[in-house]
Every structure is written in C-alpha cells, then in structure tokens.
Amino acid sequence: MALPEYRAAIAPQPTLPKEQTEPIKGQPEPKGYKAVRDRYVKLEKFAITLTLLSALVVLLLSLATQVTLSNQNRALQDLQNDSVAIGLENQNLEQEVQELSRYDRIIEIAKELGLEMNEANVRNVTR
Predict the structure, then answer these.
(1) Can you tell me the distance from the alpha carbon of 61 to that of 58, in angstroms, rounded to the nearest whole number?
(2) Contact between 110 and 117 (Cβ < 8 Å)
(3) 125: helix, coil or strand?
(4) What's the confidence (pLDDT) of residue 23?
(5) With contact defined as beta carbons under 8 Å apart, do 33 and 41 qualify?
(6) Where are the domains of the chain?
(7) What is the per-residue burial (b if ≥16 Cβ within 10 Å, else e) of 89-121?
(8) What is d(CA 3, CA 5) in angstroms, rounded to the nearest whole number?
(9) pLDDT tens digit string along 28-55?
C-alpha cells in the first residue's frame, strides 16, 4: 500500500475543460488592452531605433576622433623631425663659425691683405 504523499504525487492532476483554457475566437479583447499593447510596441520600437542611432553616432564620432588624432600625431612627428633637422643644421653652422674664426686663419688672411697688427690698438673682448 502506498503512503499518502506518494498517492498525491501519483494521482492525475485535474484539468480544465478546453473551452476555459483557450480564448474564444471572435470574442473581443478587453477594452483598452490593444491600445496599451500597441503603445508599448511603438515605444519599444522607438527605444530600439533611438539606441541604434545613438550607437551609430557614437561609432562615427569615435572614428572621426581617431582620424583627427592620427593626423595630429603625424603633424607632431613632422614638426619634431623638422626641429631635429634645424638643430643639426645649427650645430653644423656653429662649428663652421668656430673654424672660420680661428686666430691662425684670421692672421693669415690679414697678412695676405697686407694688414699689420698693432698691439696697442688690440682689445680683448669676451662673450
């Protein structure tokens, strides 16, 4: 003999008649139900559309920002390269000035031009 708990589990569940579980065709839906449902469907469509448009705008703005940033980085690299080139040119010119202003060279050019050195008129100037 089965215990009462098992008997309840084995016993078939009562079912409702088919007419009560399925809606009757041709019967109107409750008042206001369709209008509320349509409003929510429209609201959901609007929210999804707005979300997709927002995502698209954010994507396009991100892409535009990346392009601008890349262009600015390239311009910065060009300026840095120009700065390095100008620095090297300045160093070369300073070295050339040092070579051309050597005392030996100046004395040699002065002798070629027939100039004489008068020690009384010489002044030492320091930078």
Answers:
(1) 5
(2) yes
(3) coil
(4) 54
(5) no
(6) 32-116
(7) eeeeeeeeeeeeeeeeeeeeeeeeeeeeeeeee
(8) 6
(9) 655 656 666 777 888 899 999 999 999 9
